[in-house]
Design goal:
- The complex is a heterodimer of chains A (809) and B (62).
- Chain A is α+β, with helices and mostly antiparallel strands and 809 residues long.
- Chain A has a seven-stranded mixed β-sheet with strand order 17-29-28-27-18-25-26, with helices on both faces. A six-stranded antiparallel β-sheet of chain A has the order 9-8-10-16-11-14, with no helix packed on it.
- The two termini of chain A are 19 Å apart.
- About 1% of the residues of chain A have low confidence.
- Chain B is mainly α and 62 residues long.
- Chain B is built from two helices and no strands.
- The radius of gyration of chain B is 24 Å and the shape is elongated.
- The relative contact order of chain B is 0.06.
């Protein structure tokens, strides 16, 4: 049952292992290699707790371990705050209970692993994991253990879990789901019983059945059928009634007529001890129709479940100046004009103006771009952005409710309400179909009664049953359910089942740049060295010097400088003195008596007093000068995702474009590298939204791929939105489709499955309609008895369902 | 044939019982997670003697 991981891949997460044998773990006596410190730590924790059987049981590889383990640990402590727990913890005096969404559950063995691991903790009363919903219900004793240590323990074995509140719709969906299962189960069990009795009569297996026994059988059948008609079938009558109240007809109207007419005729026949009964047909009819409805409901329920997992509670805390000291409070309790301390490395809890200190702030969550923005006294900072450099004090200008972050959220909500809706063509079609069926049935009844046929009533029932659009009703939901299951296996979550239909209509694909097409990490694309014979510095020494300087900087560009391989063999002894950072510009330092300056072109030129030369060539964005002379020039850009070129090549049927908040020059570079013709830069979240809406107004149907918070409004507005792996929660929340793996190739699979699904739906509908049309004449001339009609209808439904399940292969 | 007058009502009673149990199961969330519980029986909780639990010390390396 355990899966096998190919050689050269991480034993824990199954992704390619580029680190060789750097991270070994001994599992069940065999040494396996992991791809990263994160997987190594998680795997070691699993082994240390004696849970190595997980690797035997699992049917899917685990999610990749998070290497930033310690960083998140401290943040979990927030969940122990009583004010916060009020919102989502149920407390009954001695025990507390909470619902968690758990990220990283890939197969049933994960549920086993979590339960085993937590059950060992003292103070944990009960833990039950729901694998299909990716959730857990936890009951614990607050006096023995606190919530953060439980979450911490889960994090150790590789599962990120956070408290959340289920969606409002979800509770009602859940109730409906239970009532569906009950109705379906009842109908199924009863169908078996009634069928047994009926088959005995039809095929004379008991030999000659005398009238007394036949009457007895019918009475028992009536008894068994009654709950099916009254309880299981109620779904159809309610829906039919609603349709009639709205002065229209739907598929449930003929269904209701057929069920009640057959049932009442049956009751009369049993009382008079004469005439025919078709109880088994009623049961079978209700049972098969219910399967269709249930599948449809389930695919919708699944979709809400997934989207409500995204509603995690991630509370922000802040340090507030109160009574001459900094106290920790919840960000939502802050009021305007209060002073808040934001330490380096923390996110800004609230919108405000800087009153003390200077720092660099990463606003990528709002703008999508990774280059930090310098903020000094008087500058405005936004909630949710990240303080990269040094502590600052801010004065609150807006309470959290009106923070920038929440404005984006509101923008997103508005965008969702304007989203183009999938056409409801099927509904229109079925209205005409149903009207036709009702007219034909009425004509059939009139014709045969005028001609004095005693069977007129049963012929009409046969017509109603034979033309029942049951298979037609199953055609779409069964195909969508199967496609969703298949995509789930491929690591693609669909939040709306009808998204698949819309994918086929899409004409354009719009990409966000940073984080979607690129990795959001800088790397050196090209270096040019300027040397003369007299220079004491060779290339390796220049590299070593540049690395030594950049190593001390927190700027994301600095990370592009990697340690030179032959560091030891260079003739410079690296000894950095009088190191100075000029925020947003560059670095100055003295290294071994050499005056070094590294930074932006403008900054370096001004430092070494060189006039900016005007050239036409494509300049590098970072210069390095030693002793007043430029020694090297670097072209540093964001790295393109390794699978992006392949994705772009395979999507040549669509019009592709890039929509980014970054500088147009950078966007152009990436667009050229990937040969995408249309690109738009310098777009704010609002600007992106306008762009999308303009395109939609021109009649285009858009698929949007994005990752950041700034993409959330556009994702909500586009016809189909895809949040790529590692996307922010807000983006995932806004998207229709969420990719679970950080691989872009899943988009191609998604489009393929969407096309297959479309073909399947067409085949299903084609079959269902032609079957109905084919049997209609036979039913009308009275060759078909109701039980044959019901059997045929059931077979037709089974064929449709079987055809759909072929999608899962 | 008169035996069926006893057997069939008996069958009806058993079916009623089955439906009762089924409704109870639905009410108690037995159908919540169909992906998981099917595997439970295959998971063996005992680890072989030779790699028996080491003491858990992960509170120290956080």
């Amino acid at each position: 049952m355990s899966i096998s991981i190919a050689e050269g891949h991480c034993y824990h997460c199954g992704l390619p292992n580029l680190e060789g044998d750097k991270f070994p773990v001994v599992i069940n006596g065999v040494e396996h290699h992991m791809c990263c410190p994160g997987c190594h730590a998680v795997s070691s924790a699993i082994i240390a707790n004696g849970l190595e059987n997980y690797y035997e049981f699992r049917t899917e590889p685990a999610a990749r371990g998070d290497s930033a383990l310690d960083n998140t640990m401290a943040k979990l402590a927030v969940y122990d705050e009583p004010e916060l727990q009020e919102e989502f913890v149920i407390f009954d005096g001695s025990e507390k209970q909470i619902q968690l969404t758990v990220e990283g559950i890939t197969c049933a063995a994960c549920g086993w692993l979590i339960e085993k691991q937590l059950a060992k903790l003292e103070g944990v009363r009960q833990i039950s994991v729901n694998v299909s919903a990716r959730r857990a219900m936890l009951t614990w004793d607050e006096s023995k253990i606190n919530l953060s240590s439980i979450l911490q323990r889960l994090k150790h074995i590789g599962y990120e879990s956070l408290p959340f509140q289920p969606d409002e719709h979800e509770a009602s969906y859940k109730r409906e789901e239970k009532s569906f299962i009950k109705k379906l189960g009842l109908a199924g069990l009863m169908t078996m019983q009634v069928m047994m009795l009926a088959m005995g009569q039809y095929f004379d297996v008991f030999g000659n059945i005398d009238n007394e026994i036949a009457g007895y059988f019918n009475a028992i059948s009536l008894l068994l059928t009654t709950p099916v008609v009254l309880f299981s079938g109620s779904v159809f009558y309610i829906s039919a009634l609603k349709a009639i109240q709205a002065r229209t007809v739907n598929m449930d109207v003929p269904v209701t007529i057929a069920i009640f007419a057959t049932y009442i005729a049956g009751v009369l026949a049993v009382n008079k001890d004469a005439g025919e009964v078709y109880f088994e047909s009623i049961c079978m009819f209700v049972f098969f129709l219910l399967i269709g409805r249930y599948l449809e409901h389930r695919s919708r329920h699944k979709a809400t479940e997934i989207s409500s997992n995204m509603l995690k509670l991630i509370p922000a805390t802040a340090l507030k100046w109160k009574d001459n000291e900094w106290v920790s409070v919840l960000a939502k309790q802050l009021a305007t004009n209060e002073r808040v301390l934001v330490k380096a490395g923390e996110s800004v809890p609230i919108d405000g103006n800087v009153v003390a200190g200077t720092t660099a702030i990463n606003e990528s969550m709002l703008t999508g771009e990774f280059e930090p923005v310098t903020k000094g006294v008087g500058d405005h900072v936004y909630a949710g952005t990240l303080n990269k450099q040094s502590s600052i004090e801010i004065e609150v200008t807006n309470s959290l409710k009106f923070a920038m972050m929440n404005q984006i959220l509101r923008l997103q909500e508005v965008a969702i309400s304007h989203k183009p809706k999938a056409a409801v063509m099927a509904d229109n079609f079925s209205r005409y179909f149903v009207s036709a069926v009702l007219v034909i049935s009425a004509c059939t009844y009139l014709f045969w009664s005028i001609n004095g046929n005693e069977e007129a009533f049963w012929i009409t029932i046969s017509v109603l049953v034979a033309t029942c659009p049951c298979a037609l009703g199953l055609a779409t939901p069964s195909a969508l359910t199967c496609a969703m299951a298949k995509l789930n296996k491929l690591g693609v979550l669909l939040k709306r089942a009808d998204a698949l239909e819309q994918i086929n209509k899409a004409t354009d694909i719009v990409f966000d740049k940073t984080g979607t097409l690129t990795q959001g990490e800088f790397s050196i694309q090209k270096v040019e060295y300027f040397q003369s014979e007299s220079d004491s510095l060779d290339k390796a020494s220049i590299d070593a010097l540049a690395y030594a300087l950049e190593q001390r900087s927190e700027h994301p560009i600095a990370k592009a400088f990697t340690p030179p391989i032959e560091l030891k063999e260079t003739n410079v002894n690296i000894n950095v003195e009088s190191f100075k950072i000029v925020i947003g510009k560059g670095l100055i330092a003295t290294v071994d008596g050499l005056d070094c300056v590294i930074g932006s072109r403008k900054f370096v030129h001004s430092q070494i007093n060189v006039e900016q030369e005007e050239t036409q060539r494509d300049n590098g964005n970072v210069l390095f000068a030693v002793d007043g002379k430029v020694v090297s020039e670097y072209w540093i850009t964001d790295t393109v995702q390794p699978d992006a070129p392949e994705l772009i090549r395979k999507l040549d049927d669509f019009t592709l474009s890039i929509l980014s908040g970054d500088d147009i020059g950078n966007v152009k570079k990436i667009a050229n590298a990937l040969s995408i013709d249309n690109f738009y830069g310098n777009k704010t979240p609002d600007g992106k939204l306008h762009h999308i809406q303009q395109q939609q107004a021109e009649g285009k149907s858009l698929i949007m791929l994005g990752d950041g918070i700034n993409d959330a409004p556009v994702l909500a507005a586009s016809d189909i939105s895809i949040a790529v792996g590692n996307a922010s929660d807000l983006a995932k929340n806004a998207a229709d489709v969420v990719l679970l793996n950080p691989k872009l190739n899943a988009v191609i699979e998604l489009i393929e499955v969407a096309q297959q699904t479309k073909t399947k739906i067409r085949q299903n509908i084609g079959w269902a309609i032609s079957y109905n049309l084919l049997v209609l004449p036979f039913a009308m001339i009275g060759w078909l008895t109701p039980w044959q009609a019901a059997l045929g209808m059931s077979l037709s439904s089974v064929i449709v369902v079987y055809n759909s399940t072929r999608l899962m292969r | 044939m008169s035996i069926i007058f006893v057997l069939i009502p008996l069958a009806v009673i058993i079916v009623a019982l089955a439906i009762g149990i089924f409704f109870w199961a639905v009410k108690n969330n037995q159908f919540e997670d169909l992906d998981r519980q099917g595997y439970s029986i295959l998971y063996d909780d005992d680890v072989d003697e030779k790699h028996k639990h080491r003491p858990i010390d992960d509170d120290n390396h956080q």
